[in-house]
Write a structure and sequence with these properties.
By secondary structure, the protein is an alpha+beta fold. It is built from 4 helices and 13 strands. It has 2 domains: about 110 residues, no CATH class; about 220 residues, Jelly Rolls, CATH 2.60.120. Helices cover about 35% and strands about 20% of the residues. A hairpin with a 5-residue loop joins β1 and β2. α1 runs antiparallel to α2 and α3 crosses α4.
Length: about 350
């Protein structure tokens, strides 16, 4: 027969054992959570780097094709020059000069230094990865932390806004209205496309900004040179339709990346809804990246090689889209973005 003291000792032992098991379970769950965060962060970071690599590969393939056509033209011109060399030496000399110019153009296109890898960003990315555990508790992926460090203030220029856009006094939102507003005409203003661009542009370094797009069914946003056409119904006036701008368009659940009139359908995110869209630009590598800022989901990357002018942020809130698209596009403080979902 077990005495009362022994009974309490056994009871205390079982109670302690139960508490220990509960503590083990809690600790294990915490470590499982940390592993989940690390795995997701690794997936996002590698996906972003893969997309940037694909952008550079596309540019290299385009340059190879251009070089192929140039060499065919050069071969033809050289053959013609050879047959006419004896007939007209002066004329041939002029054509040789033209051909030499095209040869130099070909050599420039094949120069690997035109395709830059953003070593500065990659070094910082590696450094932040090494210190990743410092960010685990905050649940902020290393890629997002890096982009946030490049956040800059964006102020929209009302003098560039289409007359059917309402720009907030602070220059941080653009809203479509059916009413044609009485605004002064000037060379900066878009008169057909529903665009507005930022007051200031940037030429050097990296830049990151975010736009709140929640509740909208149609929008376009991206970056543009100040030389983008602004008057008339030319296709180049639309963001991404000419060589002066890069953008992502969202319309009724479908996403499309645009540059120089070439569409890239983003079928991997069809139907996905993002609260915020982030745009990263780097003059070091000529890179323009778009991502769903809520989850740092890479959308598309363009590799421009070298930017030839300052870049301005640009947004188009779109028309009313049958009454479904009245909400504004809101410029966010990208340095303090909404938490990852």
């Amino acid at each position: 027969m077990i005495c009362m003291g022994q009974y309490f000792i056994l009871l205390l032992y079982h109670f302690s054992q139960k508490k220990t098991e509960e503590l083990k379970d809690k600790i294990k769950k915490k470590y499982d959570d940390m592993k989940r965060v690390l795995d997701e962060d690794l997936r996002i970071t590698l996906c972003q780097l893969d997309m940037e690599e694909e952008a550079m590969e596309r540019v290299i393939e385009e340059n190879i094709e251009r070089c192929y056509h140039l060499t065919q033209d050069l071969d033809q011109q050289l053959a013609e020059i050879s047959t006419q060399l004896e007939e007209d030496k002066q004329h041939s000399s002029d054509r040789i000069s033209v051909t030499e110019g095209r040869i130099m153009e070909t050599l420039k296109l094949t120069d690997p230094e035109l395709i830059h890898i953003d070593e500065f960003k990659n070094e910082q990315l590696l450094s932040l990865t090494i210190n990743l555990l410092l960010f685990i508790r905050s649940q902020v992926p290393v890629t997002k932390k890096l982009f946030q460090s490049y956040a800059q203030e964006v102020v929209l220029n009302p003098d560039s806004a289409h007359p059917k856009l309402i720009i907030s006094p602070a220059g941080d939102s653009a809203t479509y209205t059916d009413t044609w507003q009485e605004v002064p005409e000037n060379p900066l203003r878009f008169d057909t496309t529903l665009n507005v661009i930022s007051r200031e542009g940037f030429k050097k370094g990296c830049n990151y900004w975010e736009v709140q797009v929640s509740g909208k069914t149609y929008w376009e946003l991206g970056v543009t040179y100040p030389s983008i056409p602004r008057k008339g119904r030319e296709e180049d006036c639309w963001l991404g339709r000419g060589p002066a701008s890069w953008c992502v368009e969202y319309f009724n659940g479908d996403y499309t990346a645009w540059h120089n009139g070439v569409p890239h359908e983003l079928i991997h995110i069809t139907g996905k809804i993002f609260q915020r869209i982030g745009v990263f630009s780097s003059s070091y590598s000529g890179l323009v990246c778009f991502l769903g800022a809520d989850t740092m989901t890479p959308l598309y990357s363009f590799c421009a090689g070298t930017f030839t002018d300052a870049l301005h942020q640009a947004v188009c809130p779109g028309h009313d889209n049958q009454g479904t698209n009245w909400k504004p596009l809101l410029i966010c403080d990208a340095s303090r973005s909404a938490p990852i979902l």
